[in-house]
Amino acid sequence: MADLTTEFLGIKSPNPFWLASAPPTDKEYNVRRAFEAGWGGVVWKTLGMEGPPVVNVNGPRYGAIYGADRRLLGLNNIELITDRPLQTNLEEIKRVKADYPDRAIIVSLMVPCEEQAWKDILPLVEDTGADGIELNFGCPHGMSERGMGAAVGQVPEYIEMVTRWCKQYYSKPVIVKLTPNITDVRKPAAAAMRGGADAVSLINTINSITSVNLDSMSPEPTIDGKGSHGGYCGPAVKPIAMSMVSEIARNPETQGLPISGIGGVTTWRDAAEFMALGCGNVQVCTAAMIYGFKVVEEMISGLSDWMDEKGYTSLQDFVGRAVPNVTDWQYLNLNYVAKAKIDQDACIKCGRCYAACEDTSHQAISMSADRVFEVIDAECVACNLCVDVCPIEDCISMLPMAAGEVDPRTGKVVQEEYANWTTHPNNPGACAAE
Ligand SMILES: Cc1cc2nc3c(=O)[nH]c(=O)nc-3n(C[C@H](O)[C@H](O)[C@H](O)COP(=O)(O)O)c2cc1C
C-alpha cells in the first residue's frame, strides 16, 4: 500500500494533509480532535505579540458564494489573528505537541515589522517544542492596516528582512506564507529564499467583497451598515493558487525551494494536483470548516488508492512531476489539432452546447429537427466551450486528430510538419527555449 508519510523540511507527519492556520487550529480542543480524526499536522492559528488585545467584530465574519446546488464555492472572511491570550496558546501548543509527537505542529506568527518584536516572541515559541514557524505575511484585512500581514507580504525587502531575523533568533524551520494580493508572486518567494526561508506556503486569502445588500446598500458581511473587503478562499481560489505555486516551482531563481500548497484543497485529487505542481504537502482550511475534520479520511484513502493504482509507492514518486509541463503560451504546439465529439448515448438534448457555440463562438454544432446535436468538424476550433457548458460529464470530449489526417477546417495535414514544435524555427518561442 502507498506510503503517505511526509517529511517536509525534515518534519515528519503521517500524511501530507495539514490544517492551515485558521479557526480549525485556534485552540487545543480543536487540534486534538483534528489529530484524532487523522490530520497529519496543523499550522496553529496566527499568534500575535502580547499587548493590546485583538478584538474581532461581533457581527457576521463570513460571506459565501454558492453553486446552483448551494454547495459553497468561495468563502470570504473578515476575521483577525487569534484573539486568545498568547500565553494560553503557547501552553496549549506545548501540551498538544507533547501528546502527539508524530504530528507536525507549526506556529503561525504575525508581529510588527520590528526586530525586537520578533526577538521577543521567537524564544517563547521555541520553548513550546513546536516543529517550526510560519510567518503570516498574507492576511489581507484588519492586520494589514496596522503594517502587518499582507502589508509585509507585498514588499519583498520586508519579507527578506523579517525572514532573516527569524532565522537568526529561531533554530527550527521557517516557512513564509505568501499573499496572493500581488502582481508577481515570484518576487516575494525569491525574497523569502534570500532571507533564508526553509519553505514558502501559499496562498493566503484574496481581497474580496462577496456580495452587496441592495436594501442597505452595504457590502456583506455587514457590520452596523458598513462592510470591508475580506479574504477569499475555498474551491473558487484553487486555480489561482495552483498558478502561483507553479510560477514559483518553475522559476530558476527559487529552484529547490520547498512549497506547501494552500487554496481550495477539498479532495485528495486537489491535493495530488498541488503536489504534482511541486508542493511537498498541502494545507486545508475551508474544506474542514465546511465538512468537519473527518473530511481528511477521504483525502487519505483517495490519495492512497490513486497512488496504488498508478504504482506510486511514496509521495516523492509524483511530487513535482507536472512542473516540466507548465510552460509559456508561445511554446504550445500550434500544430496540435483536436475536434469535439458528442456521445449521442449520453446526450440529454438540452442544447446548451448548441446555444453556446451558435450564439457566441464558431457555429460548429448543428441541431436537427428532433434535437440531435452534432459537431461540424469543418468549423470546430476545439475551443472547449461545449465541454465546459455541457451538464453531463464526459458527454462531449475533445479528441486529438492523428498525425497525417487532414483538418477539414484548414485543409492542412495534422502534425506532419514541425513534429518538434518547441524547437522549430517558426515557433516564436524557439530561441528562448534553447
Ligand atoms: C476564517 C478564516 C480565518 C483565517 N485566519 C488565518 C490566520 O489567522 N492566519 C493565516 O495565515 N491564514 C488564515 N486564514 C487563511 C487560511 O489559512 C488559508 O490560507 C486560506 O483559507 C486558503 O485555504 P482554503 O481555500 O483551504 O481555505 C484564514 C482563513 C479563514 C477562512
UniProtKB/TrEMBL annotation:
Keyword tRNA processing: no
Top EC class of this enzyme: oxidoreductase
GO CC field: cytoplasm
Catalyzed reaction equations: 5,6-dihydrothymine + NAD(+) = thymine + NADH + H(+); 5,6-dihydrouracil + NAD(+) = uracil + NADH + H(+)
GO molecular function, one term: dihydropyrimidine dehydrogenase (NAD+) activity
UniProt KW DNA damage keyword: no
Keywords for the protein's UniProt record, in alphabetical order: Iron, Iron-sulfur, Metal-binding, Oxidoreductase
Domain 4Fe-4S ferredoxin-type positions: 338-370, 371-401
Domain of life: Bacteria
EC number(s) reported in the record: 1.3.1.1
InterPro entries attached to this UniProt entry: 4Fe4S_Fe-S-bd (IPR017896), 4Fe4S_Fe_S_CS (IPR017900), Aldolase_TIM (IPR013785), Dihydroorotate_DH_cat (IPR005720)
Family membership: Belongs to the dihydropyrimidine dehydrogenase family.
Subunit structure: Heterotetramer of 2 PreA and 2 PreT subunits.
Biological role stated in the UniProt entry: Involved in pyrimidine base degradation. Catalyzes physiologically the reduction of uracil to 5,6-dihydrouracil (DHU) by using NADH as a specific cosubstrate. It also catalyzes the reverse reaction and the reduction of thymine to 5,6-dihydrothymine (DHT).
NCBIfam families found in the cross-reference section: PRK08318.1 (NF006183)
Protein name: dihydrouracil dehydrogenase (NAD(+))
